[in-house]
Amino acid sequence: MAKLQGNVLIGQSGGPTTVINASLAGVVTEALKKTYMKKIYGMRWGIEGFMQDLVVNLGAQKKEIIAGLRTTPSSGLGSCRYKLKDHDLPLVLEKLKKYDIRYFFLIGGNDTMDTIHRVEAFCAKNNYPLIGVGIPKTVDNDLFGTDHTPGFPSAGRFVALSVKESGILARDMQKVDQFVVHQCVGREAGWLAAASALAKESPDDAPHIILTPENPFNEEAFLAEVEAVQKKVGFVYIVCGEGVSYADGSPVSASKTRDKFANVEFGAMGGSSVAMEIHKIISSKFGWRGEFQVTESLPMCAEDRASRVDKAEAFRCGQEAVKLADRGVTGVMVSMVREKGKAYRIRYETAPLSSVAIAARPMPKDMFTENGMFVTKKYLDYARPLIGDLPVFSTLDFRKNK
Fold it and tell me: What is the distance between the alpha carbons of residues 141 and 238, in angstroms, rounded to a whole number?
């Protein structure tokens, strides 16, 4: 079958990750091998910038710049959170024709997969040959159709290391602060907050309680657990996902602000914070002094804490997207499937964009303990090979008093 001749367009959108540029490098590196893929364009500021003719010739970049993207955090092309509207599609098609785009790759999460799905379907409806392939990305790890998403392992490593180190601080400062509340991103799924459990070496280590969007917040049960841990250990360390909500669906953060996709804005963007609210709940009940930590987007851009597995897989996902396009496969997202067995191995497959777009993938119930405030061994076994080994720190033996 004759190859489709034309140019390539690549975009990044949504919140960045430490390894999203590695996927970009993977696409460019592989596309440069294909003679029928002529010019390789990058969207400046995502689909929003493309509609304004903001493109860059990635194929003309120096090789060392493309290679350097593999270890460069955030979104090199610039990102956006633009909600593509139906009336935008004719303009998008006009721009695709203008630049003779025949291969379209977007790197992102749920909303990004929705964008590429709609563009690819609109082109097909209007008889414009276009191959569209999505490349997964999100620190939230909530995409359907893949074992995990590039970006999550590195962000999870950031969280685990942060909790491990600040947990030692909390332990040693317990006579000053009796509790710490550490907030992670994660609107609808707790994968990232749960990664903090990897910091725990012994039962008394932080974290002690993990709150996630999958489990409705029960204030009475939560305060009982807080009190029990503090009496036993001397302090309590709580990790919470930003989207933790009450049983009626109202966010604990009390945020009412919504973004362009009708999602509730959490943290600084929403002018409120679940960590602050939980801090108030604990202080009001027990009168303790404590602190809260809200990392916001830091886990999305900490290259110094990146997972080696994550870097390699993100680059490979970019390459696999081009290989799929080379075979004429369209309307899919690159998917990673974990193979059975003790050793960690994955294979690269596909998931239809129609099933990936919009919906979020929560953590399975069997990854949580019965009370919903910690994770089981199943989650630890799932996350450990992605995040990698953590450093081991020394603890004084206070029995040595003579």
Answer: 21
Tell whether omega for the bond before 73 is within 30 degrees of 0, i.e. cis.
no
Q: What is the CATH number of domain 153-302+361-387?
A: 3.40.50.460
| 3-class SS of residue 94 | helix
Tokens of 384: 């450990």
Among candidate residues 140, 142, 310, 326, the one labeled active-site is 140
Identity (one letter) of the amino acid at 188? Answer: E
Residue % of the chain over a pLDDT of 70? 95
Whether 6-150+304-356 and 153-302+361-387 share one fold: the answer is yes
pLDDT at 207 over 90: yes
Question: Cα(338)–Cα(214) distance, rounded to whole angstroms?
Answer: 23
Whole-angstrom distance, CA of residue 282 vs CA of residue 232: 17
Domain boundaries, the chain: 6-150+304-356, 153-302+361-387
Instruction: Please tell me whether the overall predicted TM-score, pTM, comes out greater than 0.70 for this model.
Output: yes
209's enclosing H/E stretch is strand 209-211
188 contacts 213 by C-beta, under 8 angstroms: yes
Has domain 6-150+304-356 been given CATH number 3.40.50.450?
yes
d(CA 209, CA 225): 8
Is residue 397 part of the annotated active site? The answer reads no
Helix (H) / strand (E) containing 56:
strand 55-57
